[in-house]
Amino acid sequence: MTVVSWLDERFGVVEAVEGELQHRVPNYATAAYRYLGGVAFILIAVEFVTGFLLGIYYVPDGAGNPAPAYASVGFIQHTAYLGWLVRGVHFWGANLLLVVALLHMTFVFWNGGYRAPREVNWMIGVLVFFVIVLFSFTGSLLPWDANAYLARAREISIISGTGVLPEGVTGFIKNIVQGGPIVGPGTLLRFFMAHVFLLPAVMTFLLFLHFRLARGQGPRARPIPGFPITSGPTRSWPWLSSSGLVCSPWPGSRFFSRDRPPTPVRRSTLGRSGTSWRSSSSPSWVPLS
Fold it and tell me: Of 42, 33, 180, which is closest to residue 107 (Cα–Cα)?
């Protein structure tokens, strides 16, 4: 407790945790599809943990016959204690992560989460999905079996633009990705370094930015039919229509109706100061009827 108190005095950890636990969430944000982002984050955490456990026994060496990389995967699968389970969770978790991340992006796009002021966060989310695809691309070569070797050779040929770009450009891209003119031990080492060190660092940084922006901007409300949102919502009042009608979907708010969808109300000359309402010249809102 002394250590915790010492850290809390300098970083405010307890206050930050209590603030997150007591943070109020609008009613519309409790829909099932709103949790897909959290599910994707949990799957990423599972992938990091299982990947670390697999890395304890994996040997990133593709030279020789059989190669140490192939032999180490066989050892993990058949000899290491619960190695088959850890590898299976890592494999199927990666496939499920692609599906969940794609569904999360689909629902965010459907709700207009790419619009201002969330366009930067949307672009960061697209980069996160691109990194997830790169995780799948680099990790699938690590077993170093025939299927991984032939599939990655075909995909590298596609990435290099074979048949589309000039031959000199194609050869340059292949040499950068493969570490040589053909897929070999150098390719395996490059993919291993990207999969284990480079991509996790990039993913951690992007997720930090993604969560900070999402936490600061709040969840995006779905527009009311007939009242399209044309300007960027704020954290407290996300419902703003082009006709000047507004309402609040926040539970506990005097503008909120739990029994029916939020009813638009007309703009008034009320303002808010702290927790008390007063008259002012700034535009605001009136209670629901």
Answer: 33
DSSP structural state of residue 271: E
Measure the CA–CA gap between 183 and 175, rounded to whole angstroms.
9
Residue 284 has what DSSP assignment? Answer: E
Could you tell me the two tokens for 190? 């490059």
Main-chain phi, psi angles of 189, to 5 degrees: -65, -40
Angle at 134 between CA 39 and CA 122, to 5 degrees: 55
Residue 225: asked if its preceding bond is cis (omega within 30°), the reply is: no
Q: Kindly compute the dihedral angle of the four CA atoms of residues 142, 146, 150, 152, in this order, to the nearest 10 degrees.
A: -10
Tell me how far apart the alpha carbons of residues 204 and 18 are, in angstroms, rounded to a whole number: 24
pLDDT tens-digit map of 92-122: 999 999 999 999 999 999 988 898 889 999 9
Helices (H), the chain: 2-11, 13-21, 36-57, 68-78, 83-110, 119-139, 146-159, 167-178, 185-193, 199-217
